[in-house]
């Protein structure tokens, strides 16, 4: 007798085939998820490592900036100290300049010239006086040129005297003191004047 299978075998085969298909899809989805998760974890670790390196470099840059600021401050202090040392050295040189100038003036002023006023402004000396002749003034200028302390003698004016003695001429002259600091720009603006009418 022939066997007739009345069970729905086609539907059962189709259902098994669908289960296998869904299992394969689930497996592939799981594998894909794992691959993406591993790739994402790898790149995130790289990004985190780069961020850590950047942070380290930023911190080191801040430390170096602080050191550079300290170096700049030290450089400025060094410049200030050098400037003070030079100023002290120049002041030391010009400490006795008043006495030296008066001593030098006694050497360079020939007989026949009478000083009325001697004024110091910074490194410059302004002289007003009377002279018996122009030759005496020429001799004085020559003496200034050979002086070790004074230089740049410049005769500003010679005028006939208006006073009692018509034989004397009034003159004005300017000189410079060699190696003297320019104290004309000091705040107090003091002037040293010797002599008078």
Automatic annotation (TrEMBL):
Q: Which InterPro entries match?
A: Extracell_DNA_Util/SecSys_Comp, PilN
Coiled-coil annotated residue ranges, if any? 64-91
Return the Pfam families for the record: PilN
One annotated GO biological process: type IV pilus assembly
Where does the UniProt annotation place the signal sequence? none
* Record-annotated membrane-spanning stretches: 21-43
Keywords for this protein: Coiled coil, Membrane, Transmembrane, Transmembrane helix
Q: Spell out the protein name for this chain.
A: PilN domain-containing protein
- Organism, by scientific name, is Thalassotalea mangrovi
């Amino acid at each position: 007798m022939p066997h007739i299978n009345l069970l729905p075998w086609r539907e059962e085969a189709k259902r098994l085939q669908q289960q296998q298909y869904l299992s394969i899809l689930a497996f592939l989805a799981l594998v894909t998820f794992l691959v993406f998760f591993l790739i994402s974890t790898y790149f995130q670790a790289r990004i985190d490592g780069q961020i850590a390196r950047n942070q380290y470099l930023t911190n080191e840059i801040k430390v170096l900036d602080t050191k550079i600021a300290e170096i700049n401050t030290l450089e400025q202090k060094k410049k200030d100290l050098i400037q003070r040392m030079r100023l002290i050295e120049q002041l030391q040189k010009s400490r006795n300049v008043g006495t030296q100038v008066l001593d030098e003036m006694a050497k360079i002023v020939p007989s026949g010239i009478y000083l009325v006023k001697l004024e110091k402004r910074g490194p410059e000396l302004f002289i007003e006086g009377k002279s018996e002749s122009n030759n005496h003034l020429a001799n004085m200028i020559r003496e200034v040129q050979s002086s070790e302390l004074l230089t740049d003698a410049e005769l500003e004016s010679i005028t006939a005297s208006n006073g009692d003695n018509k034989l004397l001429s009034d003159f004005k002259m300017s000189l410079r003191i060699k190696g003297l600091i320019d104290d004309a720009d000091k705040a107090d603006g003091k002037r040293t004047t010797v002599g008078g009418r």
